[in-house]
């Protein structure tokens, strides 16, 4: 990641047993970690990521954008009708700017790779205007990674009272 020369650990006292250690990044005037679970949904919730080629292309496009911009993809999963992304980025990048960049560039590249998408998304917008995002800290990092990696095997069901916003977004 750009401008992240050193990574600092919180040490064993701050890590739950069995959890992946999410290390702090060293910046010019401090230390920190900015990670988000982001869900992007295609316009009209069309199931446009229906096959392995389309899923692979979407993942490669997103990873390519992230590499160019200096964002770190911790985990990614492309479902038929949405995309989960667990992402870390520099504090000078705003969340809204990161999402705008991902949506804009990925739309251009995916329409170029798959011109047939324009038949289903005739107004030229690949993604909905909405988005789901939640900041993720050390306590929930493994939970989010597991959720994204395992969601490909089961239908996505948001459970519990603290997941009401995700449940509403995934409807």
What order do the helices and strands come in, and which of them pair?
Blueprint: E1 7-8, E2 24-27, E3 30-32, E4 35-40, H1 52-69, E5 72-78, E6 83-88, H2 95-113, H3 117-120, E7 132-135, H4 141-150, H5 164-170
Antiparallel strand pairs: 1-2, 2-3, 4-6, 4-7, 5-6
Helix pairs in contact: 1-2
Characteristic key phrases:
171 residues, alpha+beta, three-stranded antiparallel β-sheet, 5 helices, 7 strands, disordered N terminus
Write up what this structure looks like.
This protein is an alpha+beta fold. The chain has one domain (33-170): Transposase IS200-like (Alpha-Beta Plaits). It has helices at residues 52-69, 95-113, 117-120, 141-150, 164-170; strands at residues 7-8, 24-27, 30-32, 35-40, 72-78, 83-88, 132-135. A hairpin with a 4-residue loop joins strand 5 (72-78) and strand 6 (83-88). The chain is globular and about 50 Å long. The N and C termini lie far apart (34 Å). Mean pLDDT is 82; it is low at 3-19.
Outline of the structure:
This protein is α+β, with helices and mostly antiparallel strands and 171 residues long. It has helices at residues 52-69, 95-113, 117-120, 141-150, 164-170; strands at residues 7-8, 24-27, 30-32, 35-40, 72-78, 83-88, 132-135.
The overall average pLDDT, rounded, is: 82
What proportion of the residues form beta strands (DSSP E)? 15-25%
Gyration radius, in Å: 17 Å
Text of the CATH class: Alpha Beta
Low-confidence stretches: 3-19
> What is the count of β-strands?
7
Tally of discrete structural domains:
1
Major pleated sheet: 4 strands, antiparallel
Please tell me the CATH architecture by its name: 2-Layer Sandwich
CATH topology: Alpha-Beta Plaits
CATH superfamily: Transposase IS200-like
Shape: globular
Distance between the termini: 34 Å
Pairing-aware structural class of the strands and helices? alpha+beta
Number of helices: 5
SSE order: EEEEHEEHHEHH
* Lateral strand order in the biggest sheet: 5-6-4-7
Helical residue percent band: 25-40%
């Amino acid at each position: 990641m750009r401008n992240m020369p050193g990574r600092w650990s919180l040490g064993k006292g701050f890590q739950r047993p069995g959890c992946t250690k999410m290390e702090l990044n060293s910046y010019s005037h401090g230390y920190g970690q900015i990670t988000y679970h982001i869900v992007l949904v295609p316009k009209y919730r069309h199931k446009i990521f229906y096959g392995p080629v389309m899923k692979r292309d979407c993942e490669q496009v997103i990873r390519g954008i992230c590499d160019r911009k200096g964002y770190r993809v911790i985990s990614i999963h492309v479902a038929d009708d949405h995309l989960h992304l667990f992402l870390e980025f520099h504090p000078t990048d705003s969340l809204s700017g990161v999402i705008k960049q991902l949506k804009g560039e990925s739309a251009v590249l995916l329409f170029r790779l798959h011109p047939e998408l324009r038949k289903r998304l005739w107004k030229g917008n690949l993604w909905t205007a909405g988005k789901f995002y939640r900041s993720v800290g050390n306590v929930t990092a493994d939970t989010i990674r597991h959720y994204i990696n395992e969601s490909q095997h089961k239908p996505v069901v948001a459970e519990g009272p603290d997941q009401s916003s995700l449940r509403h977004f995934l409807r």
